[in-house]
Amino acid sequence: MQHVDGNAIAGPLAEFFAFDITTAVARCNGCGFVAELARAMVYTSPAGSVLRCASCEQVLATLVESDDRAWFGFSGVSAIEVRRR
Amino acid sequence: MSFITRGFSGRSHERDERLPPGQTLVHDFPVLSAGPTPEIDTAEWEFSITTETGGVHSWNWQQFMALPIDEVDTDIHCVTHWSKLGTSWRGISLDTLFENVETQYDYVMAHSYGGYTTNLALDDLLDGKAWIAFEFDGEPLDPEHGGPARLLVPHLYFWKSAKWVRGLVMMGEDEPGFWEQNGYHLHGDPWKEERYW
Ligand SMILES: [Zn+2]
């Protein structure tokens, strides 16, 4: 199979990273609950923020911030649905 | 280690030698967590060490409390730039818990009630460097502080000192735990500022 590098999805990814978090919908890998990310429970620990499924409490996503970088982890979601403008 | 006590009239901006680079002194103790606080009754509590052969060494609360207890006075350093000096704990040394454990593996995944994990090198747990602590400042560890028992590895950043610890699983390779998968350093030495990837 031929493949090209990640630049090829730069366009669609730009659309993804410009999404409005309050309308984005994610499916929980643990229990299958589908809901807006805005409905998830957020826990703020010193190390970072953790989004948990409102149905089963599994970790959906994490956010870690340093002075010059940020890390977004989506370990508990299989896909994110965003509204197109 | 030499340390000179400075008088209260001394210049307060002089840097304390016990503070690793990039750290600031605090006197309180932030207790925020990455999830709901598990409420574990000591009657149900169990701690185990699992090796590569599948062998499990486990202790219930009664067996655990019958082991020799260490008094630990130590400084702790959080990756979010605060340090607290001279904290006092009581706990069981990992040297004691590993006494009869046979393993060829060099790494450990610590697992907690509530699902948290963090990875450690076995070398960072042995030789008087780590404990399973059940008392802080003369009081039983309350659930917000990780009670009934938490890992205490004070020479590494404090996210490695897993709250509500329930077991250690030996690993052949160093694999990232929860925060280590999401931006944090695999090792976490505060004197080398091993904060992030
Ligand atoms: Zn769920």
Automatic annotation (TrEMBL), chain B:
Sequence ranges assigned to domain Oxidoreductase molybdopterin-binding in this UniProt record: 35-179
Protein name, UniProt field: Sulfite oxidase-like oxidoreductase
Pfam family, one: Oxidored_molyb
Ranges annotated as spanning the membrane: none
SUPFAM superfamilies linked to this entry: Oxidoreductase molybdopterin-binding domain
InterPro entries: OxRdtase_Mopterin-bd_dom (IPR000572), OxRdtase_Mopterin-bd_sf (IPR036374)
Entry-linked CDD domains: arch_bact_SO_family_Moco
Region called Disordered, residue ranges: 1-22
Gene3D superfamilies listed in its UniProt record: Oxidoreductase, molybdopterin-binding domain
